[in-house]
């Protein structure tokens, strides 16, 4: 029942997103045909009108939206103004790189930030705690693109490493791919690490102050079992919420990181489409990113039930 | 008897508690004071940009990529413009855009959240669903799309950042309003014959202001990063306005020749954002004493 409600709510969000994307593109002055003509040079008005009828642009806006929605549901995102190729396959080719970046960054930062946050909370106000918190604040204040450029600067000076010009897919050659993607993923991971470390720390501190932790301690349970058995499972709940939101923001951060390292992901496609005024592609990328975002939120929502059994009963 | 017990109990716990709390507050507020100092200094720099900068930020004043040496204290960029003057003028762009966009977001988003929380009903549903729609996209993607589609001008960049900032402020304003509207003093005020406007302005607003102020500093920091990101991608404010993000984005091509062109603007962005974050943390401690113990 709960699952059904969550899926329905995600579908509602997806519908809202589709309206947003549709409206966003129609903020551009002129319709698709004038834009197309703008790039082709001249075109007789009769031909333009025929094209408008062909693409259904002479219909009322809600009908246009419905037609567009039906096409999208069929997996048809239209054709690129530039390459004249269908948009959907191009996006599906770029998506794995972006997803890999986002997932890689999440893994790296979870592995570092969660232990550090727990340690920081347990040894509250120690030197380590203060250092970690200060570093986290600094990390939060560094723009992603600057971190990326600094990493390139350091790595090229120290190891003569430069971002590669071409990228290999994860499944074509995993070893090479990981080597190429490590630095971009690290760039994306650093600001996330700062957020997660702060969140872990305050979540663990919050739980450590609870009665059941005191009871566990009073029973004579040692520090480690108290942490692993009583504290962490409860601290994980707010952490997963933040992770869900952050993972969505990572998709945004990936746009910038891809630009720096030249990774052929969705972000690179989006930026080049925007500068070339290739609106069908812009529309497709935004839609796909938003859908991924909504899907991640759905997964987070579902995972609550497993992390926090209380949720299932409400 | 209970008094004695209470005294003994507090006597045992209080010294350690107040002492650590005092130290923590001091340490926190040192950071807060540093943050406020940074913000104040930046505002002054932005206001006095014309007097402080040694050269016109858009004029070619020497050979391209001249290394740092007097009179070009930080060197010249890839077009022979004085890096220091450009950094100083960049402060102005960063602060103007972030302040205006957050102010707009506060007015629309915060106002809508306040009204939605106060009146509930259809207004609440419509306003919050509208905000939820904006939440279906990562903020930077939405900002890129808006700036790219509307065209990169000062107004559009401000608008784009305001649109992505507004939903968060609306939620922050709505949540405490929902609680406050049920409080006895609001019911009391209504019983005394106070109108909606008076209740909103005199009773609700003061009680939701504290979290709003903290959120605003955080939003300004975020707005500066979004502005810089747009500039970095070439979708920010057009020249003659100078954007740190754009300086970094274009200077990056000369990484081996003059790494200062990428390091310095990044440093400027970081210090500014850090200043606002520190100030926000400090404000949180001052305005919301309840949070002192938990964080």
Termini Cα gap of chain B: 35 Å
Summed over residues and divided by their number, the pLDDT of chain B gives a mean of 82
What is the level-2 CATH architecture name of chain B?
Orthogonal Bundle
List the helices and strands of chain A in order: HHHHHHHHHHHHH
- Which pair of protein chains has the largest interface, and what are the residue counts? A-B, 50 and 46 residues
SS summary, helix count of chain A: 13
What is the tally of beta strands of chain B?
0
Main sheet properties of chain A: none
- In terms of per-residue confidence, which ranges of chain A show pLDDT below 50 for 5 or more consecutive residues? none
Rg of chain A from C-alpha positions?
24 Å
Oligomeric category: heterodimer
Query: Helix/strand/pairing class of chain A, anyone?
Result: mainly alpha
Distance between the termini of chain A: 11 Å
Q: Shape of chain B from CA axes? A: globular
Offer a quick outline of the entry:
The complex is a heterodimer of chains A (314) and B (295). Chain A is mainly alpha-helical. Chain A has 13 helices and no strands.
């Amino acid at each position: 029942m709960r699952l059904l409600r969550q899926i329905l709510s995600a579908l509602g969000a997806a519908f809202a997103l589709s309206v947003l994307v549709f409206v966003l593109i129609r903020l551009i002055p002129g319709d698709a045909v004038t834009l197309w003509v703008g790039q082709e040079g001249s075109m007789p008005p009769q031909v333009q009108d025929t094209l408008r009828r062909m693409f259904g642009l002479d219909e009322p806006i809600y009908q246009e939206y419905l037609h567009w929605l039906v096409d999208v549901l069929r997996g048809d995102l239209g054709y690129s103004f530039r390459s004249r190729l269908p948009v959907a396959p191009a996006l599906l080719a770029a998506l794995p790189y972006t997803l890999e970046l986002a997932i890689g960054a999440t893994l790296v930062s979870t592995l570092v930030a969660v232990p550090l946050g727990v340690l920081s909370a347990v040894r509250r106000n120690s030197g380590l705690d203060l250092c970690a918190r200060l570093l986290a604040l600094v990390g939060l204040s560094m723009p992603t693109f600057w971190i990326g450029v600094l990493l390139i600067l350091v790595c090229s000076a120290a190891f003569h490493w430069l971002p590669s010009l071409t990228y290999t897919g994860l499944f074509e050659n995993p070893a090479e791919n990981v080597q190429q993607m490590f630095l971009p993923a690290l760039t994306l991971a650093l600001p996330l690490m700062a957020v997660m470390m702060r969140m872990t720390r305050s979540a663990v501190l919050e739980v450590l102050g609870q009665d059941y932790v005191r009871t566990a301690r009073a029973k004579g349970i040692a520090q480690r079992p108290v942490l692993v058995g009583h504290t962490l499972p409860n601290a994980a709940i707010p952490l997963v919420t933040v992770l869900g939101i952050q993972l969505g923001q990572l998709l945004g951060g990936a746009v910038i990181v891809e630009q720096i390292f030249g990774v052929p992901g969705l972000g690179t496609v989006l930026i080049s489409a925007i500068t070339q005024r290739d609106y069908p592609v812009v529309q497709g990328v935004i839609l796909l990113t938003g859908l991924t975002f909504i899907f991640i939120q759905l997964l987070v929502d579902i995972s609550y039930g497993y992390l926090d059994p209380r949720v299932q009963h409400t | 008897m209970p008094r004695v017990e209470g005294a003994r109990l507090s006597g045992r716990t209080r010294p350690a508690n107040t002492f650590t709390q005092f130290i923590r507050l001091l340490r926190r507020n040192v950071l807060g004071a540093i943050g406020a100092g940074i913000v104040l200094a930046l505002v002054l720099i932005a206001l006095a940009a014309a007097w402080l900068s040694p050269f016109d930020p858009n004029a070619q004043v020497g050979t391209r990529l001249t290394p740092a040496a007097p009179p070009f204290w930080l060197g010249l960029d890839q077009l022979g413009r004085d890096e220091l003057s450009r950094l100083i003028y960049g402060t102005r762009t960063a602060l103007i855009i972030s302040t205006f966009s957050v102010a707009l977001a506060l007015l629309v988003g915060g106002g809508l959240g306040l009204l939605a929380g106060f009146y509930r009903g259809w207004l609440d549903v419509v306003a919050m669903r509208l905000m939820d729609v904006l939440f279906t996209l990562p903020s930077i993607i939405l900002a890129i799309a808006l700036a790219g589609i509307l065209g990169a001008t000062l107004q559009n960049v401000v608008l784009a950042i305001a649109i992505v900032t507004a939903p968060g402020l609306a939620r922050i304003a709505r949540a405490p309003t929902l609680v406050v509207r049920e409080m006895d003093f609001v019911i009391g005020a209504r019983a005394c014959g106070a109108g909606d406007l008076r209740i909103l302005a005199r009773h609700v607003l003061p009680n939701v202001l504290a979290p709003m102020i903290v959120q605003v500093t955080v939003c300004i920091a975020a707005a500066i990063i979004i502005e810089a990101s747009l500039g970095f991608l070439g979708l920010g404010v057009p020249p003659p306005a100078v954007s740190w993000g754009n300086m970094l984005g274009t200077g990056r091509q000369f990484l081996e020749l003059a790494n200062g062109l990428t390091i310095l603007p990044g440093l400027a962005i970081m210090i500014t954002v850090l200043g606002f974050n520190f100030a926000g943390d400090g404000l949180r401690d001052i305005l919301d004493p309840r949070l002192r113990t938990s964080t």
